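To whoever picks this up:

The parser on our side crashed when reading a file containing two proteins. I've narrowed it down to the boundary between the first structure block and the second sequence. Both blocks are reproduced below exactly, byte for byte. First block:
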Amino acid sequence: VFTYWLRDGLKTKRELRTEAEKKARKNKTETPLPSMAELREEDLELEPGVFIVVRDDEGAVVRRVAADRKKGLHRVAWDLRWPAAAPTDLSPAKDRAPWDEPDRGPLALPGFYTASLEERSGGEWKTHYGPLTFEVEALELATLTAADQTAVESFQKEVRELRRSVLGASKLTGEIKVRLDHLRQALVDTPEADPSLMAELEALKARYDDIVLAFRGDRTKAQRNVFTPPAIISRVERITYDQWYTTQAPTTTHRQAYEWAAAAFATEKEKLEQLVTDLDALEDKAEAAGAPWTPGRMPMQ
């Protein structure tokens, strides 16, 4: 847990202007009138942020923990973990059930780390205080603690990277589905569109379905309570769930599941890349035929 104090805090241009206006009214002086350019800068400004930046003993960043930017005394905790590396989600935070934990990364190894209080303003980073050195100690309470913690961390980093890629590619398939659905309707609404374009789109949709089946499993069977073997995502998530919440070494099953998932993902990733290329080409044909705009397509005129 890190405790820090900000004398003035970090303020946006709008907050600074509002304070100046309040001060002018209090002093009964002329209130400064912002120009439209200044108001536009306020509207487009990236809100400044304060972070506790944790680095390992070699200086590599382990985690940037978001902190409060207001003036005063604050406390912020690092959960001793790496970031989750899950797809970025900017949707507003929502209430969670007690058993629904947020996405997390693997535990950091015991050892020495440093922490710095840093500011992000626009695209620039500035250190306010630090670095301070601290030590992460193992409680040694586990019965089956791994003898080689470095090897465990190495495996977990491999899993984390594979999970980052697999979940990212899965999100991409969702975007592709949106493009396909919109393009299908756009071709219907384009009098000049050759019917062969519609057949080409459905062929792409069939390839898309095969890729999604490999990523997420056979939902047709699952919905009918028929056994279906674990798919790529489920295998990776099983390893993650087992490894992120323990200090013991990965089992042979974990390592075999990782090898299978990594190999399967490499195959499907190649298919996905080719699908995106072919979809781009089909969208170009739709644009040339005068199709209405669809997501992911730049109008030519």
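<<boundary where parser fails>>
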Amino acid sequence: GYSKNDEFKKNFRKFCFIKKGSNYFGDILDKKNLLKKLNLVKPDIIIHLAAQSLVKRSFLNPDETIRVNLIGTLNLLECCRKIKTVKSIILATSDKCYENKNSKKYFSEEDKLGGDDPYSASKASCEIIINSYIKSFFFDNKKGIASVRAGNVIGGADWSKNRVIPDCARSIINKKDLYLRSPNSIRPWQHVLDVLNGYLILAKKLYETKNKNKYNGNYNFGPSEKKYFNVKKLVKLFFKSINIKKKIIISKKTFAKEKNIILLNSKKSLKKLKWKQKINFEDTIKLTAMWYDNFINNDKNEIDKQIILSKLF
């Protein structure tokens, strides 16, 4: 593991159950240090998740968002070119990399890239850079490389600011009303275990196959259900799952115009990787709510159960 030595450091240590492994702290913008650590470990497979992943934060600090997401990805790609042991590279971008006109369109991998906000623009830019490197430097079947575009990932242990599920949990802890800024926004909600399952299947395919070009490219990972679920539906089910009544207040404060609808077409992942969603929307919310409820009540049984559940994938 390689991560920034910042306010999230204690969370990484608290929820890291891997007994064998090495963790290094460093900034992905420090290419020299990143290359040094990668040369030390000599990895076979790299899964790139380092990013500034909060939309609101991208408005408050667009320079940080674009540098971390774009230059950070570029630094990693350059390092991967120099490390002979690397055979498989997964780079996470976002479902927000597409040009979005707020229609009920399911985005497929061939759709036009775009980004009206700094976060989305940074992810669309990453996709252009990744595609350039695939065609310019990773076409000789020595290294497999793919970008992955997941929907709105939820699950336990997320405490990020201005995210709906962590906000629900904090409203319980602080015994306060829940404020929602976009109750009618529709998102492709999915459990983190489903998404990680897809990433690992793809990483394995890229690693094992001799014809890397067969799997190189970009992949959507979104829910299979053809139903729309908005923020308000998610929040109500979250509190209902753990028998908590909470007053929900629609906030009038807005920091910027967010897209109301994001939907993903994942037929490519279903066909080429044989990946599919295993946890439906209702169970996704229930599992997530139970995790936070047990965490708040210092009961690790549910946390342990969900770790065991991950082995079923």
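After patching the parser it read the second block fine. The mean pLDDT is 90. The longest helix spans residues 62-82.
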